[in-house]
Amino acid sequence: MKYVKKPISTKDYDEIKIYTKKAFENIGSETYRQRLIYKLLNTAKVNNQNDFFSSLLRALNSRKDDKNVKRLSRKLEWLYPLSSANFEKVAYSIIMGIMAVRGE
Amino acid sequence: MIKASNETRLVSEFTLKFTGNWIIDLGMLGFFNLLEEIYEWNFLETQKRIKENEEIVYYGIFPFAYICSEIKRKGSAIPKKIIKDFVNEIYKREFKSKKEIFNFTWENYITKAATDHWKDYIISKAIDENKDKKFIKGTPETLKSLIKRIEDFEKEFIRKNRDEIKKFLDKKGKFQKFKYEDIKKFQDTPIKFKEYGKEFVKNAEEFKRIISGIISEVDAYLDKKWDSEVISNKNIPKERAIFYRIPIANKYYTNFLFFQPNYTHEKQKKELYYAIDSKIKEKDVLGRIDKTINKFLASYDKAVNIYYTPLKTKYFIDIIPYLFIYLLCFDRAFEYYRNIGYLVFYSNDIFATYKVNKRLRLRKSKIESEDDPNSIFRSTWQTVIDTIIEMESWWVLENLYLIKYADFKSKTQRFIDVEYMGISRLQATVLIDEDLRRNLNQRLQIDEDKYKWLFEEFIKNKPLISTIMNHLILRLNQETKQRKIQPLLYSLALEAELFPEYGFTHLFEDPISLNTKLDELVPRIKKSRKKMDLARKDIKKLLSESIRENNAPHLFSIIRRQNKYSFANSLLKLIISSQEKDKRLIRHLNDYIFHEIIQNDETWIYYALGLFMGFIGG
Predict the structure, then answer these.
(1) How many CA atoms lie within 13 A of B193 on its CB side?
(2) Which one of B564, B566, B576, B600 makes the best mutation probe of the A interface by having the most chain A beta carbons within 10 Å?
(3) Beta-bridge mates of residue B244
(4) Omega before residue B237 within 30° of 0, cis
C-alpha cells in the first residue's frame, strides 16, 4: 500500500480520541462497545489496518449522519493510509476513545 | 533555590578562610581540630579568638596546644587544670611582643605540661637503655646511682626467680634484665598466689615495694630538677640541654625541627618559634621545611607525584601568614577509620568541611562496624547532605573530595585515594528537596544479597531504571521482603523528567536558561510521581488481587522488551473486562494511558512501570 507521509501531531491524536468518544457515545450498548474494543485490540495487535478499519467503519456506518461520526470520518480520511508506526498510535487513540465513553 | 543564608554570609566574614590549596586547607582544618582537642573550642570560638587577638592564638594558644597534643599522642595525660590555668593566664596578661607571648607560653606552661611525660621518658630511657651505661647526655649522677640501685635489686630477684618472672611477664629465651614496662607490670598486675607459689609471691612483693620506693625517689628527684632548672627558667644549664629536651616525636615529620632527638631544649623552643613566625629569612630553615613537612610539594623529581607541581613554600609564606602552623597540623585533619585508613572530607568551604568531618567522627563507630567498603561513601554523603541542608550552602555540593591515606609515616606518606564527590547543580537541586532526598535515600535489594543505594546511583549518574527493574524481578518472584513503592515511583518520575530530550544534556553551558529549568524541575518530578501513584492506585482498585498477580509477570516482561503497544494492548484488555463503575477512575486511567504511554514515545516506559506498581504488592 502506498501512502504519503503526513506529519501527525499530538493534537491530531487528541482529536481522534475526542471525536471517537463523542461518536461512540451514541453507538450501541456497553457490551457492544466492549466486544468491539476486543476485536479492535486484536487487529491492532497484529497490525492489520484493513480489518481494523473495516470493523470500525462498520460500527460507525450505523450512525453515519451523526455530526461527530462525520468529523471522525473526515479526520480518518485525511490520515489514511497510515504507516505501520502511525497506525498503531491512531488505532490506540481510537480504542481509547471508545473506552472513554465508559468514563462519562 | 541556590541561596545564601545568614550563616553562609557569616562564613565570608571569617578571619581564616580556605586558600584553595588542599594541603594548606587541610592544615587549617587540622589547626581547628587541634584547638578543639585541647581547649574544647569549636570552629566559631576559634575564629572569634583569632579575630580578637591573633597573636595570642598563634604564638601562645597554638604552641601550647601542639606540644600538649603531641604529648597526648605518646600516651601521657595533660592535667585539665594546667590547660585551664594557661588560658586564664595568657588572656589576662599584657605582652609587648609576639616573642614575649611565645616565651611566656613555652617557659611557664609548655614546660609544666610536659613534666610528667618528660619524667616518664627519662625513667624509661634510663632503665631500658643503660645497659652500656649510655645515659642521655647530661643525665645527673644522682639519677644514675638511683638507676644502679634498681638494677642491683633486679639482678638479685631474677637470680632467685627467673622462671616465674619469665612466666609472669610472658617472656621466652634468655632473660637478664627488666624493661621499664616489665616493672610497671609488676606494679600494676596482681600475682596469683596459687599459680606461682608462696616464695615467688613473697619475693615479688618485696621487689615491688623496693622498686616502687626507688622509682618514687627518682620521680621526686626529677620533679625537683625540672621544676628548678626548666620551668620558668630562661637559662637552662648547658650540660643538661639535651637531657631536658621535651621528648616528642612525630612519625609523619620524623626528625623535623623540634622532633629531632639530638636537639637541645633551647633549640626545640627556637625552632618552634621559627615555624610559627613563618616569615623567616634563613634559607636553610626554609629548605628544611620544604624537604620534610612538605613532601608533596617539593618531591617532584624524586617521587611519583603527578598531581602536583614542584611548589616551594617560599612562594606561599608571604601570602599565607602562619603557613607552617597549618602544614604542621596537616595530619590532624585526618581521622583513622578501622579497615579504611586515615580519611578526611574536603570541600571548598572551611565551615562545611569542618562540620562534615566533625559529624563523620561522631558516626565513626557505625562506619567502622559496617562490612561494606562503601559505607564511608554513604555516611559521608549522608553527613554532607545533612550539613549542607542545615547551612544552606548548596554550592559546596559541587566541590567535594574524600581523601584517604594509608598511613602517616614520613617515608610512605602514601595516598590511597582521592575521590571526587562533587555533583552537578542539577543533582544538587534534586537532593535539596526533602521528599526526593528521603525517597532516594533507600537501599533496594537487587539480588539475593546485593543492594543498591538509589542516592548513590543517582549521584554517580547511573540509570535508576535498571536498578528498579532488577528489584522488581525479585518482587515478582517473591525473593525480597522489601515492600516499598514510593522510592520506586520517585526514582521513575525523576528519571522520566531528566530524560535527555528535555534539555538537561548541556548542563553547564547556559546558566540562565538552566536556572529556569532547574526551578521547574522538582515540581515537575513531583507532579509525575503523583500521576504515577494515582494510576497505580486505580489499577489496584480496578482489578482483583488474583488478576493482578496472574498478569504481573506477563506485563512486566512486555515492559522489559520495551514493547509499548503490546503493553497497552494487554492492559486495555484487562481494563475493559473489569466491571468497575467508578467513572472518575476509568476516566483518569484512560487519560493516563493515552497521554503518558500511548502518546509518549520517549519516556512511556517510566510511566508504564509506575502504573505497573499497582500489579505488585506493597
Answers:
(1) 2
(2) B576
(3) none
(4) no
Q: Which residues of B342-378 are buried (b: 16+ CB within 10 A; e: fewer)?
A: bbbbbbbbbbbbbbbbbbbeeeeeebeeeeeeebbbb
Predicted local distance difference test score (pLDDT) of residue B303? 45
Match 594509608 to its residue by C-alpha cell: B406
Disruptive mutation site among B593, B594, B601, B602 for chain A (greatest number of A CBs within 10 Å)? B594
Nearest-angstrom CA–CA distance, B267 and B274: 10
> How many angstroms separate the CA atoms of B54 and B58, rounded?
6
On chain B, the residues whose CB falls within 8 A of the CB of A89 are 598-599
Q: Percentage helix, strand, coil, to 5, in chain B?
A: 65, 5, 30
Q: Where are the beta strands (DSSP E) in B389-442?
A: 400-405, 415-420
Task: Classify A38 in phi/psi space as left (phi over 0), alpha (psi -120 to 50) or beta.
Answer: alpha
pTM: 0.69
Domain locations in chain A as residue ranges: 10-103
> Smallest Cα–Cα separation from B392: which of B349, B446, B423?
B349
- pLDDT tens per residue across span B379-400: 777 777 777 767 766 666 666 7
Residues 212-251, chain B: which have Cβ within 8 Å of A?
A: none
For chain B, the maximum distance between any two Cα atoms, rounded to a whole number of angstroms, is 107
If you ran DSSP here, which 8-state letter would residue B600 be given? -
Beta-carbon separation of B568 and A92 below 8 A: yes
DSSP string of B137-184, one letter each residue = TT--HHHHHHHHHHHHHHHHHHHHHHHHHHHHHT--S------HHHHH
Report which residue type is found at B273: Y
Strand pairing of B400-405 and B341-347?
A: antiparallel
The residue type at B480: T
> Which residue, B445, B540, B522, B455, is CA-closest to B484?
B445
pLDDT tens-place string over residues B293-305: 544 443 444 444 4
Cα(B336)–Cα(B40) distance, integer angstroms:
20
Percent of chain B at pLDDT exceeding 90: 34
Return the SS3 of B105. helix
Distance CA B358, CA B28 (A): 14
User: Based on C-alpha coordinates, what's the Rg of chain A?
Assistant: 13
Amino acid at A38: Y
